[in-house]
């Protein structure tokens, strides 16, 4: 009997490996097709996968969140609707009498649904594999000691398949959520010191946030080009604008825009004399810069001012009027640059910055809404609009949109893996929300 069970386990494992290498699972007719959540073995997806972090680790979204999402009747109906559509299109494409235009339209939709269908079928096969493993575990329970090794192998296989099912469900969310066409764009990032509360603590925090995003750009191997950097007292920062270029920059940083709050006992500046916890804010602004855009600017619509760069003192003080400020008179949009001693270079950089801002305002209603995000992200810079709190006294960072909590704030402010983990958590949350919105919208009865 032991030899027979080992053979069945080996056969199961080899089939799982083979199906994974093919990138798809078993088929099945529409009548016998199982839903993604209607399987008794799915409960093990939450109980067999070990916890990755301890109590002091970041607060991740629980597996049960994904589980509850797929238990939703509307999600099940929507998935089944898409799978029925995929099968129907596949049958239609087999007919030789299709016109070229109809075939082209069907092929386009078939291509859109194919990744989802592959993940759906892979999930079905994983459910079958899990059912077989659980059946073997049930039949081996209460037997002789010689089955102990087999039981351990079966439990390990159960954990692996359960983890695979969870990963496939996340892949389904990504396959269903429409991608943002600007995700691959470079961005213009601005950091602005809060003006309503905190004083010098806001300016110091703004500099730290600037350094954090600079560190994150280095961590991601992105280019980080400074357009403007306006110093403040006590080593703080009033405002800075940078261009960040690289792979999927906008996708990762688009949710960083908004008000960030800091709580700490200041080490320098006027606030440090009071030796108590102070609260301040700063604002992050994210604007996408598509790879290809062309904006015509009439020179008559520009006012160009020159002034001396504001340095930190010593050799950094510029003794010539090399800094450039350009105002687009029809819109009131302003761009300035003071990063080099060359007025010509600063002017070219400021013009590029102005073009990027104008681009947001002339692409129609949809892009105009994106441009107004700048105003929404700036807001009043008050504490009530915060998206994230950095509590140095309690060594904690909290994202208020998802409830994500992480410790070791000094490591977080370096802009490495800790920040990447939080950003990915926010991305998962927003993708799940977008997924629910797509499902609800698709199932609304047409008027």
From TrEMBL:
GO molecular function: translation release factor activity
GO biological process, one term: mitochondrial translational termination
PROSITE patterns xrefs: RF_PROK_I
Keyword Protein biosynthesis: yes
Gene3D superfamilies for the chain: 3.30.160.20, 3.30.70.1660, 6.10.140.1950
Domain annotation Prokaryotic-type class I peptide chain release factors: ranges: 308-324
Highest taxon, organism lineage: Eukaryota
A cellular-component GO term for this protein: mitochondrion
SUPFAM superfamilies attached to this UniProt entry: Release factor
InterPro entries registered for this protein in UniProt: PCRF (IPR005139), Pep_chain_release_fac_I (IPR000352), Pep_chain_release_fac_I_sf (IPR045853), Prokaryotic/Mito_RF (IPR050057)
Keywords: Protein biosynthesis
Similarity-based family: Belongs to the prokaryotic/mitochondrial release factor family.
Protein name: Prokaryotic-type class I peptide chain release factors domain-containing protein
């Amino acid at each position: 009997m032991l030899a027979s069970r080992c053979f069945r386990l080996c056969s199961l494992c080899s089939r799982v490996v083979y199906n994974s290498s093919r990138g798809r699972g078993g088929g099945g007719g529409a009548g016998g097709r199982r839903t993604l959540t209607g399987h008794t073995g799915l409960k093990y997806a939450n109980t067999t996968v070990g916890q990755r972090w301890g109590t002091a680790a970041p607060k991740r979204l629980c597996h049960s969140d994904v589980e509850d999402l797929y238990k939703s009747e509307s999600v099940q109906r929507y998935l089944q609707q898409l799978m029925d559509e995929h099968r129907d299109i596949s049958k239609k494409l087999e007919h030789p009498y299709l016109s070229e235009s109809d075939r082209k339209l069907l092929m386009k939709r078939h291509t859109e649904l194919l990744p989802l269908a592959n993940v759906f079928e892979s999930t079905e096969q994983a459910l079958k594999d899990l059912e077989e493993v659980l059946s073997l575990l049930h039949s081996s329970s209460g037997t002789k000691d010689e089955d102990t090794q087999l039981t351990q192998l079966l439990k390990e296989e159960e954990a692996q398949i359960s983890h695979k099912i969870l990963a496939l469900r996340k892949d389904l969310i990504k396959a269903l959520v429409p991608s943002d066409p600007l995700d691959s764009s470079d961005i213009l990032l601005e950091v602005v010191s809060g003006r309503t509360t905190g004083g010098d603590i806001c300016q110091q925090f703004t500099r730290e946030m600037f350094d954090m995003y600079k560190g994150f750009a280095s961590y991601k191997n992105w280019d980080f080009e400074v357009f403007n950097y306006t110093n403040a007292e006590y080593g703080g920062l009033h405002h800075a604008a940078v261009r960040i270029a690289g792979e999927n920059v906008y996708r990762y940083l688009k949710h960083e825009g908004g008000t960030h709050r800091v709580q700490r006992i200041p080490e320098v500046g006027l606030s440090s004399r009071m030796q108590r916890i102070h609260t301040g804010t700063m604002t992050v602004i994210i604007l996408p810069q598509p790879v290809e855009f062309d904006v015509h600017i009439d020179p008559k619509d520009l006012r160009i001012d020159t002034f001396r760069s504001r340095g930190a003192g010593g050799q950094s003080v510029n003794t010539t009027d090399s800094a450039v400020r350009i105002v687009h008179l029809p819109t009131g949009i302003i761009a300035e640059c003071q990063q080099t001693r060359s007025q010509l270079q600063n002017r070219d950089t400021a013009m590029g910055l102005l073009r990027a801002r104008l681009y947001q305002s002339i692409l129609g209603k949809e892009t105009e809404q994106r441009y107004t995000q700048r105003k929404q992200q700036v807001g009043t810079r008050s504490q009530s609009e915060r998206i994230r709190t950095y509590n140095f006294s309690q060594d904690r960072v909290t994202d208020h949109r998802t409830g994500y909590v992480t410790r070791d704030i000094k490591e977080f402010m370096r802009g490495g893996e800790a920040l990447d983990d939080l950003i990915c958590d926010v991305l998962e949350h927003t993708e799940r929300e977008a997924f629910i919105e797509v499902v609800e919208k698709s199932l609304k009865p047409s008027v």
